[in-house]
Amino acid sequence: MYYQFIGAVTEEDGSSFISIPFNVWEVCDTQGTLHIEGTTEQREFACDLVPLGKGMYKIPVDDSVKSALEGKTTGLDIHFQISNRKAYIGSDSPYSLEKPIRKVDSMKLITQPNDGLCGQTCIAMLAGVSLDDACEIMHCRDWQASMGKMVDTLDYLGLAHENVIHYTQGQPVELPKCAILMEKMGRYSHYLVIYDGTYFDPTEGILEDFDKSNLVGYLEIKTF
C-alpha cells in the first residue's frame, strides 16, 4: 500500500527533511523502526523514517535526491510504502479478488451504536455484513480501526481497492465512485463511505453533500 501527499523540503540543522502530514501509527497501524521505499518527482528513494514522537515522522532527504529535485522544494508529489510492515490479518482467507465476499454494486447504510466504531462500520457497509461480523473479522474494538487495519481487512475479504491512499489535506478533489473517506475530527480521524455521489456516514446517516475542506484523504474501492 502506497501513501501519497504533496510535501515540501525543509532544512533543519544542516539536514533536509519532508514531514509526513498524518499520524503514521494511526493510519498505517505500524510502529517502531519504519523502512520506506518511494518516489518524489520521479526520483526513487529508500530510507528509515525519522520519528518525531506520538506517531509523527519525517522523511530524510539525502544529497542525491536534493540534486535530482533541481532546486524544487515545495509542491512535491510524494509516494511511499512501508516495506517492513506486516499485515494485521493473516492470509488464510476464504475470499479472493476472484471470489470476494460480495460485488460492490450498491450500498446500504449501517450506523454505529456508539463512538469509536466508524472504521468497522465502513467495512460492514462495503462487505455487506453486520457491524458485529465486521468487528469479529477485524479483531478490533472501539477506537482501534486504523486505515491500515481496514486495508488488511479489505484484502482479506477480496474487496479490490486502489493501491494508493491519497492525502488531499483539504484541497479540492474529485472523488471516485466508491471510497473510504478520512475526515479529521479532533484527535482522531472519522471514517465514512462515498458511493455513487452519496455519503454514508456511520454517525450522521445518509448525506447528499460533504465539506471536502474537512477531508484528510481517501482510498478508492473498486466497483464492477
Q: Short summary of the structure?
A:
The chain is an alpha+beta fold and 224 residues long. Helices cover 18% and strands 36% of the residues.
Structure description:
This protein is of the alpha+beta class and 224 residues long. It has 2 domains: 81 residues, Beta Barrel (Elongation Factor Tu (Ef-tu), domain 3), CATH 2.40.30; 104 residues, Cathepsin B, Chain A (Alpha-Beta Complex), CATH 3.90.70.10. The protein contains 5 helices and 14 strands. Strands 5-4-8-1-9-14-10-11-12-13 form a 10-stranded mixed sheet. Strand 6 and strand 7 form a beta hairpin. Helix 3 packs across helix 4. The longest helix is centred in the last third of the chain and has 11 residues. The chain is globular, with a radius of gyration of 18 Å. The two termini are 21 Å apart. The model has no long low-confidence stretch (mean pLDDT 93).
Chain-averaged pLDDT: 93
Counting DSSP E segments of at least 2 residues, the number of strands comes to 14
Gross geometry: globular
Widest β-sheet, arrangement of strands: 5-4-8-1-9-14-10-11-12-13
Gyration radius from CA atoms, angstroms: 18 Å
CA(first)-CA(last) distance? 21 Å
CATH architecture of the largest domain: Alpha-Beta Complex
CATH topology of the largest domain: Cathepsin B, Chain A
- Derived from helix and strand composition plus strand pairing, the structural class reads alpha+beta
What is the helix fraction of residues, given as a range? 10-25%
Number of distinct helices: 5
- Residues in β-strands, percent: 35-45%
Largest sheet: 10 strands, mixed
How many domain regions? 2
Order of helices and strands: EEEHEEEEHEHHHEEEEEE
Low-confidence parts, pLDDT < 50 over ≥5 residues? none
According to CATH, what is the class of the largest domain? Alpha Beta
Q: Could you name the CATH homologous superfamily of the largest domain?
A: Cysteine proteinases
